[in-house]
Design goal:
heterodimer, A: 429 residues, alpha/beta, 3-stranded antiparallel sheet, globular, B: 642 residues, mainly alpha, two-stranded antiparallel sheet
Chain lengths: 429, 642
């Protein structure tokens, strides 16, 4: 160490990392873990515990129609004109505009019996991201924020949680350190990543050094909490600026040959960026795809959306499989809710949380399997309902996290709803 | 009816409070004084004098003195000597940020420092309370408290819920601004919010209701949290784990006040919307392209990124047609009405996409429950009064002890960094107030003076406790709940933005960027836009309670590299750096001005030496001054109110 003990600044603590002490220091006090919940009973009995080190969410904003994607009902009055395609799972058919994913269904565990109670976009999005319905008195963290909090490394150069294509859902009571790093468009450079003209590294570091000096003076008479949090913020921002890994955000650096399979759509390029970020070690990447709220003209629109989805998601699964990353990366596809069996006069469908589809691939997941079923009309769950609390139990299981009690403004709160049960069928022995 | 949940019944709270009989004489005297305060206030001849003739601080003097005596008694009990008084400039920056949300300008600081008047602090407080910036800032605080959202945080459109979009939100904000400016008595303010009826684009008070999308459970939770200081939502699904008296059945009793209220679509708006949709569809067919999907229409301002290259910009085109634009914007405007009790015509006025059967079931179940105020009596339906009016009457009645206490505690927390009950909306048996007699005294003074919010702020800001220095030297810092020194509060995102704009002198830059001059509003167009993107980065997701700073990476990048600060440092005309470098020719003059702009104070001798050495470290002196100002703006002293 360069400094004597008495000269240790807050910044040095950060830089050299003093293990648990440093990690605890920068958590907001209200988010500090109080104690662990009951022992993870399912950890031993259900396989797949902790197999996922990283997670990719493919989130369909607006609520994708299960009829037009992964749970088509051809030949019924509710099914509409959507045609189907045989898949890599014998006897399982999905919409014919998803040929790439149909071929890869042997890697995918498809759940056709998701069910929830929120039919309003904002509330549903909150529910699916946090595992809880919105409440006026507490803001829950999204799963990406939970991963950032539980798995994040104080020394990480890249953000732990990146959300591409939408604003993401925030960290709630876990605090802004675990907010998603938002990339609105994968094709655009990261905002404010480059130093302004004339401010080279040396000048910037001199500024930060002088800032530290002033903050030390402030801390002497006014307490160190704010200076410490500020130092941590600038340190992380500077680490990202200086990191060679930040090139992971720059999809223009991808060789043309390996970029091509993703296509040039917003979703495709976002999938490419997600793959680069996973390769670079980011813990959780969410890709949000807009446009699924198909009240009107749903069949044509879903076809177009499917083309984009199919290309991007297939390329992502292929790349992760080829690099071996897929064995430790969980990929999850879902959206706000499903859509009504009734077809509107304008050829669309309304919101329908009673039954919808989601799929899982990668780390610990048993591919080539359909879990649960909707009824013949696609209106209700016919067998094996999977609730959002079940989803969160399974996500925590897959990533090796126990349910815990946190405290938000002094009130106890569980990381996930205790009612949820892990879905064992998702996992391979 | 429940026994009221008061800390005095709570054994756990006992050890936090001194036993009554052992209290020092001063405190006992004070309690006696508190009891006759309302009488004292009425007896003071100056209390009724017109605003212009009133000597600043005189009418609130006795209450302020009682406040300080209460704080002093606890300090004495704990054997703690509080910090000394803040100097004039420390006080000025603090009160400016607290009452108007921004820092003093350089000239304001200089004038205030020179003013020899003995009552200049009380005068400054009155001046700030009368300013339009006070109304603007405190209406925003109320918007946050009532919605959990940042006003004008335009990047987060849609989050406010379906019913509080566009015109409803604008009307709500305008209403709050008007209430803050005219200092509406708090009981009336609360009554109007709880029982508001009418169109959401005509009666802004409906915004509180609209924010919760008319959901009874959410409204029950929000009313209790905001106006009674309790978070009862945890009793929604089961009896509360730690509050034995919080029963699920009581939560439902509270929710049943809202079950008879319905937002109804307005036929002419719905008609206009359908026609607009048709026009849009026709135009789309004409363009003959596969529309980018999007169900909300062009009024929602989410066009960014949706226009594929080379595709005709249908939404943009429609947005330019004022009639269509209005039709889309008014789509969610509702008429909020209360049904007659016991005529449960439920389901009327519901909207596409709602899950009718389950919602209806839930509503019918709630409607069957007799409404019962939280911690209060069962209320019977009265002819001619809606259930929400019943509730509003009880919440704001003098018989309800929680209403005034919750508000007084909220304002205390806002100014002192933590509540007397802390967190401010957690009045429970296990969370006793640190100064129960002070809370009671402030609440009764507030009631006795017609729920006058500005008066309460005068009581608080004129106190010695508020006007102490935040510096603490030597011994380890005492329990912050003793209020032995002024608190250090991280700036809220709005304060930080306003402070950055004022300190850097970028007001003009932002207005020019917006393409027009500010039209007498605190927010010019350019500034509004800048704030929208700023709040996108700096919003904390935690509603109004965030009392800790925790910076994110994008915030750090914004502050280090962002255009807003770079532009302000780049010596553009009108900015602080440009002005100081051209007007001031001496080092001392420049340092003085930059410190006044950022910190609202002068540098001391040590700081001058360190700063000058830093400015002169390189070849380029101008760059050195810019660097110094950057450092000041990013320092903890700038980014907090202290």
């Amino acid at each position: 160490m360069r400094h004597s003990t008495s000269n240790h600044s807050r910044r040095d603590l950060l830089r050299y990392g003093v293990g648990a002490a440093a990690a605890g220091l920068f958590l907001p006090a209200f988010a500090r873990r109080l104690w662990a919940d009951e022992a993870p009973a399912t950890a031993a009995s259900v396989p797949g515990f902790g197999r996922a080190r990283q997670v990719v969410f493919l989130y369909m904003i607006g609520g994708p129609s299960h009829f037009e994607t992964f749970d088509p009902k051809p030949g019924t009055s509710q099914g509409g004109p959507t045609r189907t395609l045989a898949t890599a799972q014998t006897g399982v058919h999905i919409a014919d505009s998803l040929p790439g994913l149909a071929q890869r269904l042997d890697k995918i565990a498809l759940v056709r019996s998701m069910t929830s109670k929120e039919g309003n976009h904002d509330r549903a999005r909150y529910l699916v991201h946090t595992g809880y319905a919105p409440q006026p008195t507490v803001v829950h963290p999204s799963f990406g924020a939970i991963l950032s909090h539980e798995k994040g490394q104080p020394e990480a150069e890249l953000p732990e949680f990146v959300s591409i294509g939408g604003p993401g859902v925030g960290p709630g009571y876990l605090g802004v350190h675990h907010a998603p790093f938002v990339v609105l468009d994968a094709k655009q450079p990261i905002a404010n990543l480059d130093a302004p003209a004339g401010v080279n590294d040396a000048r910037r570091d001199e500024r930060l050094k002088m800032l530290e000096k002033l903050n030390d003076g402030f801390a002497r008479t006014r307490g160190g909490a704010l200076p410490e949090a500020q130092d941590a913020m600038f340190d992380k921002a500077r680490r990202l600026m200086d990191s060679a890994k930040s090139v992971a955000f720059d999809i223009a650096k991808e060789p043309a040959g390996s970029a091509r399979p993703y296509g040039t759509t917003r979703f495709g390029t976002a999938c490419l960026q997600a793959r680069r970020l996973i390769d670079a070690g980011v813990t959780c990447v969410e890709v949000m795809m807009n446009g699924w709220d198909t009240h009107d003209d749903g069949f044509a629109r879903c076809k177009a959306l499917n083309a984009e989805l199919d290309q991007g998601a297939s390329a992502l699964l292929d790349d992760l499989a080829a690099s071996g990353k897929l064995s430790e990366t969980l990929v999850v596809w879902l959206g706000d809710f499903g859509r009504t069996p009734q077809i509107t006069p304008s050829q669309g469908r309304g919101h329908h949380p009673q039954v919808w589809s989601a799929w899982f691939a990668g780390a610990g997941i048993q591919g080539g399997r359909v879990i649960g079923a909707s009824d013949a009309g696609g209106e209700r769950v016919k067998e094996r309902p999977v609730t959002i609390p079940d989803l969160f139990a399974s996500l925590l299981h897959a990533t090796g996290l126990e349910n815990k009690q946190f405290s938000s403004n002094g009130r106890p709160i569980m990381l996930r709803d205790k009612e949820g049960k892990v879905v064992p069928e998702l996992f391979s022995a | 009816m429940h026994t009221p949940i008061r800390p005095s019944h709570d054994p756990a709270g006992q050890d936090r409070r001194a036993d009554q009989s052992r209290r020092p004489l001063a405190l006992r005297l004070l309690l006696a004084l508190g009891a006759c305060l309302p009488v004292l206030a009425l007896a003071l001849p100056l209390a009724a004098a017109p605003e212009s003739e009133r000597a600043p601080g005189r009418d609130t003097g006795p209450t302020t003195a009682a406040l300080d005596a209460a704080i002093a008694a606890h300090l004495a009990d704990a054997g703690v000597t509080p910090s000394g008084p803040a100097d004039d400039l420390e006080f000025l920056r603090r009160v400016r940020l607290d009452l108007t949300g921004t820092v003093p300008s350089v000239s304001e600081a200089e004038t205030f420092r020179k003013d020899p008047a003995l009552d200049k602090r009380a005068r400054k407080i009155d001046e700030l309370l009368a300013s339009p910036q006070y109304a603007e800032f405190w209406s925003h605080l109320w918007y946050r408290a009532l919605t959990g959202l940042t006003p004008n945080g335009a990047m987060r459109q849609g989050e406010q819920g379906r019913l509080l979009r566009g015109p409803a939100d604008e009307t709500f904000q305008a209403w709050l601004l008007e209430q803050a400016g005219s200092n509406t008595p708090y009981d009336r303010f609360a009554r109007e919010l709880i029982a508001a009826t009418g169109r959401t684009n005509a009666n802004g008070a409906t915004g509180f209701y609209a924010r919760r999308d008319a959901k009874p459970n959410d409204l029950a939770g929000a009313v209790s949290k905001t106006f009674l200081g309790v978070k009862i939502q945890s009793a929604q699904c089961h009896d509360h784990m730690y509050e034995p008296t919080w029963k699920q059945v009581d939560f439902k009793g509270m929710a049943s006040f809202f079950v008879l209220s319905t937002p109804r679509p307005i036929p002419e708006y719905q008609q206009a919307y359908r026609e607009a949709e048709k026009a849009r569809e026709a135009r789309r067919q004409e363009m003959g392209e596969a529309m980018e999907p999007g169900a909300d229409g062009p009024g929602e301002g989410k066009g960014a990124g949706k226009k594929g290259a080379g595709k005709p910009d249908l939404d943009g085109e429609l947005r330019r047609d004022p009639k269509l634009r209005e039709a889309f914007r008014n789509r969610y405007v509702m008429d909020v009405q209360d049904l007659e009790p016991r005529t449960l015509a439920l389901g009327r006025g519901r909207m596409k996409g709602d899950k009718v059967p389950e919602q209806l079931q839930e509503r019918a179940e709630l409607a069957a429950i007799t409404p019962k105020a939280w911690m209060g009596p069962t209320l019977s339906d009265l002819p001619g009064l809606s259930r929400r009016e019943l509730l509003a009457r009880w919440v704001t009645s003098d018989d309800n002890p929680y209403f005034a206490q919750a508000l007084v505690n909220r304002y205390w927390g806002q100014l002192f960094g933590r509540g007397l009950v802390n967190p401010i909306d957690d009045f429970t048996s296990s969370n006793a107030p640190s100064h129960p007699e002070l809370l009671a005294l402030l609440a009764s003074d507030f009631k006795a003076n017609g729920y006058d919010l500005k008066r309460l702020l005068r009581v608080l800001t004129n106190s010695a406790a508020y006007q102490r220095t935040s510096r603490w030297e030597g011994s380890p810092e005492p329990d912050p709940q003793l209020f032995a020194r002024a608190s250090v509060k991280p700036l809220s995102n709005e304060q930080l933005f306003q402070a950055l704009v004022r300190a850097t002198g970028s007001e003009g830059l932002l207005d020019r960027a917006g393409g027009r001059e500010a039209r007498g509003q605190a927010y010019g167009k350019g500034k509004e836009f800048a704030f929208a993107s700023f709040s996108f980065l700096f919003d904390d997701d935690e509603g109004a309670e965030a009392d800790e700073f925790a910076g994110s990476i994008p915030q750090g990048l914004f502050l280090m590299n962002g255009r807003m600060i770079q532009g302000a440092l780049a010596s553009l005309p009108g900015t602080t750096v440009a002005r100081v470098l051209s007007e001031q020719t001496t080092d001392a003059g420049r340092l003085e001005q930059l410190y006044l702009a950022a910190y609202g104070r002068s540098p001391d001798a040590d700081e001058r030496r360190t700063a000058l050495a830093y400015v002169r470290r390189g070849q380029d002196e101008r760059a050195g001054w810019q660097d110094l100002f950057w450092v000041l703006l990013n320092s903890s002293e700038f980014m907090s109110n202290h």
